[in-house]
Amino acid sequence: MAIYVVMEPPAGGNRAGDAIFVRDSFTWLGFLVAPLWLAWHRLWIEAALTFIVMALLSVAGERLGLEGAGSLLSLLVSLYVGFEGQGLRIASLRRRGWREWGVVEAGNLGDAETRYALETGDDGEEEPAMPRIVPDASQARPPQTGMALGLTHTPGRP
Question: How far apart are CA 120 and CA 116, in angstroms?
């Protein structure tokens, strides 16, 4: 069984029809052709950074006479995209205003869409908008600084 993260569009879109299902797994195309896979999913900045880093590693390996080391380091970049590519897609959708509905466990994408449709019970009725809650700034935690591994982080986690 596979795990799918269901992302719903920003307010104003058709909820059930426009939902995006992102499979939470290793992506082989992201590993094999990392910059192209990122560009295909409209992750332009990530695609450009990946291409630049891979090119710089290859050039540095050639200049230093360590062709194998440059290739291995480029392989590590590809591995990162293979493992974290779907997470980068989810982070990109969040930046564009999409919200995470939840996760669905299913055998394939069709089953995941069916389970989502049954769970939401979308019969065309519009849900009332939730009231906006503004937190008290005096009770907020101070921002945490420090080193983080990866390009994205999970907000609210220490």
Answer: 6
* pLDDT digit string, tens, across residues 63-86: 888 777 888 888 899 999 999 999
Question: Which residues of the chain are modeled with pLDDT < 70?
Answer: 12-16, 122-128, 137-158
Q: Which two tokens stand for residue 90?
A: 């989810």
Q: Please name which of 101, 95, 114 lies closest in space to residue 153, comparing C-alpha atoms.
A: 95
For 39-49, write each residue's pLDDT tens digit: 999 999 999 99
Secondary structure class of 12 (helix, strand, coil): coil
Q: Residues 96-130, buried b or exposed e (16+ Cβ, 10 A)?
A: eebeebeebebeeeeebbeebeeebeeeeeeeeee
